[in-house]
Amino acid sequence: MGASCCCSSGATQKSDVDAQFSFFDSLPTNVEEATVSHVYDGDTLIIREHNNSRVRLLGVDAPALKPRERCAVESAKFVKRLCPKGATVWLQFDEVRKDQYERLLAYIFVRNAGGAGYICINVAVVEQGLAELAAPTDTHLSMREVLLKASTYARSRKLNIWKKIDLNKKIYRSPEETAFHTATCEDLKNCMNLEEMSVSAALDKDLAPCKNCHPM
């Protein structure tokens, strides 16, 4: 990522969201201005530019609307509130500009409606507990640290998606993997030297829940 913007704690800034980590004093120098056409869900929206391209929030995995997952509607409404149709947003790209589905991958910034500065939507939706951090340790993500802090903040307060999750539950992982599993997961069948830890510890290590056994 190019020249970074200055991030401040929301505790000392006036904002219309609880911006503990998502408030930025200024925009990065290498952003691209765009206009919101439609918000699909808590991690995907469409912009008018680039032939109505779909944009996926980088480093974020929000609850799915189809099939409906818990807090999916709340997550989508939160992003729609910050990114209403016709709003100006600023996109910042990392090393990989598109995913395998040809969606743009970006950090999205909006003006802080509560005053000066800007809000990073990616960080905001995570710190509200309306999305998980999705940043495998083997991939480059320039805002990894601030997203991790936002995730820890939401989990420690049991916000939204974290409200009913047992963060002390024991899970398992192979040292070579970036995912964690239940003890009976088929993916661990032939794995040796498994590590045992809590869900919370696994998330602190930036590990992702297995898509097959759903350990959370």
From TrEMBL:
SMART domains given in the database record: SNc
Pfam families (alphabetical): SNase
Keywords attached to this entry: Endonuclease, Hydrolase, Nuclease
Source taxon at top rank: Eukaryota
GO molecular function list: endonuclease activity; hydrolase activity
Protein name: Micrococcal nuclease
GO CC terms, sorted: cytoplasm
Domain TNase-like, chain residue ranges per copy: 30-164
Organism, as annotated: Strigomonas culicis
